[in-house]
Amino acid sequence: MFHKNIKLILAGLIIITSIWQFTESNIGNGIFLIILSGIPVFLYFKNELILLAFLKLRKQDFEGAKKWLAYIKNPETALVRKQQGYFNYLHGIMLSQTNINQAEKYFKKAIELGLSMDMDLAVAKLNLAGVAMTRRRKLEATSLLNEAKKLDKQNMLKDQITMMKEQMKKI
Q: Among 79, 98, 92, which residue's Cα sits nearest to residue 128?
C-alpha cells in the first residue's frame, strides 16, 4: 500500500520517537516503539499486497488474488527485486490455467528476478517444463524437470515430476 521508501522513513521516524521516549525516561514506550518499528521493516521485505494475494491463492480464489495484485501499479519501483519475482510468479500461476504463453513469460521473469524459497523456484521450473513439453522441446523440458527435482527437497512435487517424465517418454 505504501511505497518501499515510505516504509523505511516510517520505521526511522518510529525509532527516533523511541529514542526520544528513552530520553524522557519512558522506557516502556521506547521499547514498544522499537518493537513497533519492526513492522514497516518487515513489510519492506515482504509486500503486504503480495502476502494477501498468496492468502487468496491458498483458498483457490484467483479473482481475489488478481484484485490484490492489481493494486500494485508500478512493480518495478514499488517493489524490491525478490518481490518483483513473486509478483511475476503469482501472475504466472494464475495464467497457467488459461494462457500458457503469458504464463511462460511471467515464470521466466520470476526466475530471472529470483525467488526466495526453493519450493517456489521448483514450481516455476516445473510449470516451464510443462510449457516446453507442450511445445515439443524435449531437451529443455528434461533439464527443467531435473532442476525442479533438485530443488524439491521435501519431495512435494515428486508425483508431478514423475508424471511429466512418463508423458515425455510418449513424445
A: 92
The model's pLDDT over 99-121, given as tens digits with 9 standing for 90+, comes to 888 999 999 999 999 888 889 89
The continuous run of DSSP H or E covering 88 comes out as helix 81-95
Same domain, 122 and 71: yes
| Cα–Cα nearest to 161, from 144, 143, 149, 147 | 149
Query: How many domains does the chain divide into?
Result: 2
CB 52 within 8 A of CB 68: yes
pLDDT(131) > 80? yes
Please, are residues 57 and 90 in contact by the beta-carbon 8 Å criterion? yes
What is the value of pTM for the model shown? 0.81
Locate cell 483457490: which residue?
A: 60
For residues 17 and 21, give the distance between their C-alpha atoms in angstroms, rounded to a whole number: 6
Asked if 110 and 38 sit in the same domain, the reply is no
**What cell numbers appear for 149 in the block?**
527435482
